[in-house]
Design a protein that fits this description.
Blueprint lengths: L1 H15 L7 H10 L6 E7 L8 E5 L5 H9 L8 H4 L6 E3 H4 L2 H6 L1 H10 L3 E9 L2 E10 L8 H21 L6 H5 L2 H8 L3 H11 L4 H7 L4 H15 L4 H13 L6 H15 L7
Antiparallel strand pairs: 1-2, 1-5, 3-4, 4-5
Helix pairs in contact: 1-2, 1-8, 11-13, 14-15
Length: about 280
Amino acid sequence: MEDDIHRKQNDLILKLYTTPMEDLLVTCCDGLRGIIPFDHSYTALNDQSDSHKSAFNYRSTDTDDELTALYANYYHAIDYLSWYYNQCLPMTVRSTDLMRPEVIEQSRIHQEWESRLGIFYTATACIAADGILFGTISLMRSKEHGDFTDEEMRVLEEVNEHLCSRFHLVYPNGVNRFMMDCDADPIVAAYSLSPREWEVACLLVKGISRVEIADKLSISRNTLKRHIANIYHKMGVSNEMQFFAALNRVRDRGGGSSKAENDAWHCCVIGWRDGLCLAS
């Protein structure tokens, strides 16, 4: 039994380094289910570019969409675990490590949201590195199934270490809604952009000045110029207008993106064209 758990854990860890980023957290939850039993789960990303560092992209493969949206739109703000997330540290915790069961039972989020799911115990992994919170995974189960054990938390902590490493490698300066909404894979694949080049491209599309981009990425202006030159070379363009036209060609071919994602992308381009031109 113990060997089987180790095998499943190792298989999951390997998968964490090959799964596309947009599916990484839900894939991780699916893999954890075979190691740590739970009744419900949800994942969320954290927008590092937002002044409030707010969560977004709540997803679940085992919870009703309406209840997931209800948590995302309201109950996350009164979640007794929210202060823990905001520490921006790579940690795992059980709800009962922070609050006594009788206090949890009296909490508003339990009475109004958790009880509708039939859950009581929660185990959460905070995916973070260098003071940046990338996202969270929460596993939940009923009173009948009991609290998460120390061994189960050990597994979650080890898996989370690899999640933290993958996110830090791909997004060293954190994630934001724009990166995820633009569905990086088709564009990255089309032009063979590195993670850093894609990050620069995202900031260029947002109309941020080159001085601000260099500061945000903690790189010199000369290094930024090299990144932009590499991006232009890979895309076969020589100026900003051609850069956007090349990106739009990929979006217009579809690339697996939804209509909402394509609309968001074109809004960004229109905003740039109508006055968000980069400062030199």
